[in-house]
């Protein structure tokens, strides 16, 4: 079947719309007509460093849409279902069996190998393979192939612009709080970086009763929105001499919990400095290959530092919780979204890179 996709045709290149072909779903696959897809920092980082030998490539891992067809072995999803797409997992390794599919032993092959995991791709152009299978979906296209492990049924009346980001950025930020830090009501929490992941962490913290919630970001408009979403205090890190001391004062001796979404080593150490003894830090940002941590503070204050992939969430269980909070008005994801037609996907990508848009979402007419 002929579809339209946004290809990355060379490492670091722009998204370019091209007509390509997609295979019918195999026995374990699901064909989804994509209605919206969020643009995530991971998409933009990946295209800047994706190996040349694995181009052209279709990215996109925050898709939502309507199921068109399913393979013979698919039992939980049916044609006509409205679905949200997330990351793929094997379902059989120890991490998956324990309810932590974000740490699936086969994560790399199933999500970022350029194909299905067996070396093949359902996508092609003029008879030559187009790499895909990104997070088990490659949803920067009018149609995508997905799997039961990363396809979650959602209400048909859920706006596509809201549904799309749930599968990664919202899940990551909210999950870092609810699934990893697990704060009690009344405890303090600080979020460093207020992109879509950070804003989602703020909204989840407020929904769970944390107080005060503090947001740290140099962009004034984002600090203002964080305040509207429930942050009791905001900090401009470029305007204070000591970020950690400012947060300790705002939280009465240090925050109980912190979430870093920046992956900037200096900021991670500010988070460590902002915590009170026995505090916990969740690292939800991806980017820095290594960081020199203030280990003596971690040891001396008895801190817990946890890495977080995909909010340590099982999408089939967690996305309904997110949708319920959205319905209650406690997770207003729509406040983060700027919509663009799919034909303007590169404009949307540049808006994300320039921080003009918190969560760009491309929609398919």
TrEMBL record:
Name assigned to this protein: Zinc-binding alcohol dehydrogenase
Family membership: Belongs to the zinc-containing alcohol dehydrogenase family.
Cited InterPro entries: ADH-like_C, ADH-like_N, ADH_Zn_CS, ER, GroES-like_sf, NAD(P)-bd_dom_sf
Key words, A-Z: Metal-binding, Oxidoreductase, Zinc
Species the sequence originates in: Streptomyces capitiformicae
Enoyl reductase (ER) domain mapped to chain residues: 12-362
A Gene Ontology molecular function term of the record: oxidoreductase activity
Cofactor: Zn(2+)
SMART domains hit by this protein: PKS_ER (SM00829)
């Amino acid at each position: 079947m002929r579809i339209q996709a946004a290809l990355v045709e060379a490492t670091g290149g722009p998204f370019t719309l091209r007509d390509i072909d997609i295979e019918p779903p195999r026995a374990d696959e699901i064909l989804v007509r994509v209605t919206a897809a969020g643009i995530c920092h991971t998409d933009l980082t990946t295209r800047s460093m994706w190996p040349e030998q694995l181009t052209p490539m279709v990215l996109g891992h925050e898709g939502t849409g309507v199921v068109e067809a399913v393979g013979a072995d698919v039992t939980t999803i049916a044609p006509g279902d409205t679905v949200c797409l997330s990351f793929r997992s094997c379902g059989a390794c120890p991490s998956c069996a324990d309810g932590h599919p974000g740490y699936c032993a086969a994560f790399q092959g199933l999500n970022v190998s350029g194909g299905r995991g067996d070396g093949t791709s359902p996508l092609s152009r003029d008879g030559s393979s187009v790499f895909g299978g990104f997070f088990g979906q490659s949803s920067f296209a009018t149609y995508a192939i997905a799997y039961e492990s990363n396809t979650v049924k959602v209400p048909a009346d859920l706006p596509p612009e809201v549904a799309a980001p749930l599968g990664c950025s919202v899940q990551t930020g909210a999950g870092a709080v609810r699934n990893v830090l697990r704060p009690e009501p009344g405890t303090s929490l600080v979020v460093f970086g207020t992109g879509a992941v950070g804003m989602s962490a703020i909204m989840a913290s407020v929904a769970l009763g944390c107080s005060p919630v503090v947001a740290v970001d140099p962009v004034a408009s984002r600090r203002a929105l964080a305040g509207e979403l429930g942050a009791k205090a905001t900090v401009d890190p470029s305007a204070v001499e000591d970020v950690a001391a400012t947060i300790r004062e705002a939280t009465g001796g240090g925050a109980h919990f912190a979430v870093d979404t920046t992956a900037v080593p200096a900021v991670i150490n500010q988070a460590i400095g902002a915590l009170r003894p026995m505090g916990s830090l969740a690292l939800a940002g991806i980017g820095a290959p290594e960081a020199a941590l203030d280990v003596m503070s971690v040891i001396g204050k008895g801190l817990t530092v946890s890495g977080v992939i995909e909010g340590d969430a099982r999408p089939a269980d967690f996305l309904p919780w997110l949708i319920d909070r959205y319905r209650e008005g406690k997770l207003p994801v729509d406040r983060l979204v700027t919509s663009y037609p799919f034909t303007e996907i590169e404009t949307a990508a540049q808006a994300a890179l320039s921080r003009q848009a918190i969560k760009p979402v491309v929609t398919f007419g």
